[in-house]
Amino acid sequence: MDLCSTIDLELPAGRRQLVGTGIAIALPFGTVGLIHPRSGLAARAGLSIVNTPGTIDAGYRGEIKVCLINLDPEQPITISRGDRIAQLIVQRVELPEFVEVDELDDTSRGDGGYGSSGGHAVLG
Ligand SMILES: O=c1ccn([C@H]2C[C@H](O)[C@@H](COP(=O)(O)OP(=O)(O)OP(=O)(O)O)O2)c(=O)[nH]1
């Protein structure tokens, strides 16, 4: 579902702003809302979201807001009230009960991460 701006704004290069969408929802328990950028605006103008994906908790009843950021190094981005600025995706989530243990089971990856599998010159 697309989310639209409730305001007109001009976002200068490198700046961010929290923008209202005028939407409040009651998500079913066991789901989460994720706020994603729109790929067209990202590729063409450099518009993104600071905390992408934003998390909308099932218990949240306030207005959904989007923390937009202009990642273009030079050009401002003009947004008009009603423009589609982001998209909301609703997903089911696990609600696990966490249990503290002294050891974890062995896996082939183990504790290797952060590029340990290579695949790029800078990773060695
Ligand atoms: O892009 C976003 C992200 C969050 N929210 C709202 C819904 C969410 O349920 C609430 C809290 O979000 P989050 O848990 O990410 O914020 P926090 O910085 O951890 O603050 P809090 O202490 O309120 O949990 O803010 C939005 O409207 N837009």
Automatic annotation (TrEMBL):
NCBIfam families: dut, PRK00601.1. Residues 2-118 form the dUTPase-like domain. GO terms for biological process: dUMP biosynthetic process; dUTP catabolic process. Belongs to the dUTPase family. The keyword Metal-binding applies. InterPro entries: dUTPase, dUTPase-like, dUTPase-like_sf, dUTPase_trimeric. GO terms for molecular function: dUTP diphosphatase activity; magnesium ion binding. The keyword Hydrolase applies. Keywords: Hydrolase, Magnesium, Metal-binding, Nucleotide metabolism. It is an enzyme of class 3 (hydrolase). The gene is dut. This is dUTP diphosphatase. Its cofactor is Mg(2+). SUPFAM superfamilies: dUTPase-like (SSF51283). Its EC number is 3.6.1.23. It catalyses: dUTP + H2O = dUMP + diphosphate + H(+).
